[in-house]
Amino acid sequence: MDIEVRGIHKRFGAVHANNNISLTVKGGRIVGVLGENGAGKSTLMKILSGYQPADSGDILLNGTRSQYHTPQGAIAAGIGMLQQDPLDVPAFTVLENFVYGQKTGFVFSPRRWRERLKAASVRFGFDLDPETPIANLSIGQRQQLEIVRLLSMGVRTLILDEPTTGISAEQKAILFNALRALAKTDGMSVLLVSHKLEDVIALCDEVVVLRGGRLVGTQTMPATTKQLVSLMFGQELAPPAHICLTTPKTAVALESVTLKGKRVTIEEFTMRIRSCEVIGLAGLEGSGQEMILRACVGLVRPTHGRVMIGEENVTGQSYRDFLAHGIAFGAAGRLEEGLIAGLTLTEHIALMNEQNALVDWARAKSLTEQKIKQYNVRGTPQSQIETLSGGNQQRLLMALMPENPVLMALEQPTRGLDVDSARWIWQQLLDRRANGTAILFASPDLDELVTYSDRIFVAYAGRIHEIRDATQTNIDELGRLIGGNFEKEIAV
Ligand SMILES: Nc1ncnc2c1ncn2[C@@H]1O[C@H](COP(=O)(O)OP(=O)(O)OP(=O)(O)O)[C@@H](O)[C@H]1O
Ligand SMILES: [Mg+2]
User: Fold this and answer.
1) CA distance from start to end of the chain
2) From 36, 42, 233, mutation site for ligand 1 pocket: most ligand atoms within 8 A of C-beta
3) Residues 6+ away with beta carbon under 8 Å from 162
4) Per residue in 413-462, pLDDT tens?
5) Which residue has a Cα nearest atom 22 of ligand 1?
6) Strand stretches in 36-101, DSSP E
7) At 374, phi and psi to the nearest 5?
8) Where are the strands (E) in 197-249, listed by range?
9) Which single residue of 100, 259, 271, 437 has CA 20 to 30 Å from 248?
10) Tens digits of per-residue pLDDT, 257-278?
11) Stated pTM of the model
């Protein structure tokens, strides 16, 4: 299906989020949508997929002007979108969710739907068991489910907004193969919003670049990362240099801990994080690295062993106690865990900083203004958190962190950030590290792990391998270790 958008405008108060955007996407093509945080990418995708109306402008599908005002209308017209933060109904099973919103006819036949689901899963190599509750699915599996659901509703254009944040490399490969097959074999068009330039290079036939709400460039692929970065930012960015600042002082230690999770158990694991150290945690989703991180912040309790903060044994204490001891935690799911939809920026700052029952709102507001400036957040103290672009939510999350904690434990600290913003966030982290804070972070981004870590712990099915000097590793070796290949490692 060919899509053409002509002169799309969308304003949110003073923000001109889409300013006269026109572009064409031909059937069978995969088009990357690039642009810095807040450029207007999600806004345009939501307009195309019926989640919000444009102020003005036209959408033409196969040359015909089309009008729809809801996601259901867009799907009926052939356009379906995967949201940046996947929304589905957690109480349902995979099968129920698959059938949800579809025309099932007078007699609902679970067997027929189960077979349709299975056929789609087999075609794309998706891992979808019909009886599993949605709540037990990984982000990658939720995404697979949403794709087969949209396809079976007859969608001919698929829009994906940052689909590879939070999914494993393996799931990413499956997703990309499915998208290639849909474009090349089925002639579908695909719009992919992404900050991961290597993904865009691997997948897209062409790219469009937004900046400040305008379309500022288009490029037919192949193109290099360098070319794409300069298209986006008008300049190249220098890669950061690695500096080790390790001290002998222990910030946090896990001593012979056993951590029991839903899928894996880690036994007798010891990790000593020193002050000023940057430790990366690598692994496919669900390999155990998330548990290690959460054990360090008091959210997962070991069944054996001890957790130490400095010299103090804090085993079994609550998350609040850990906070009081100077541990800061940034969760991966922005709106699920870190931030609260419906609250303004000021309310978030007040929640973090006010100890008293009576909030001093004037003080909270001026503190919020200061943080907005310091962290370069695009928003106002009165903005509700969900109106911020994904990248700006991440910046706010960073602004909510205490200034000088003993340890900052972060799940995917640069999830959804453009290259420039990701560098900036790391600069903030490294500045705190220079003041004595230890940094522990988990990331699916191998480049980020290799670039910033002093040491890396790789988890595979609950087994842990330590890379003692991360400056001596590279993404190929790390990729091999993440796949569980611990034996054939290069001798140091
Ligand atoms: N519902 C809304 N209310 C108010 N402002 C909004 C709303 N939705 C988006 N905006 C603003 O519009 C601008 C563009 O946001 P958008 O989410 O489209 O950016 P983006 O390119 O997707 O960024 P990111 O890469 O960070 O996800 C931002 O300044 C954002 O704060
Ligand atoms: Mg966005």
Assistant:
1) 54
2) 42
3) 84, 193, 194, 195, 390, 416
4) 888 788 888 888 898 899 899 899 999 999 988 889 999 999 999 999 89
5) 42
6) 56-61, 64-65, 79-82
7) -60, -40
8) 206-211, 214-220
9) 259
10) 999 998 899 999 999 999 999 9
11) 0.75
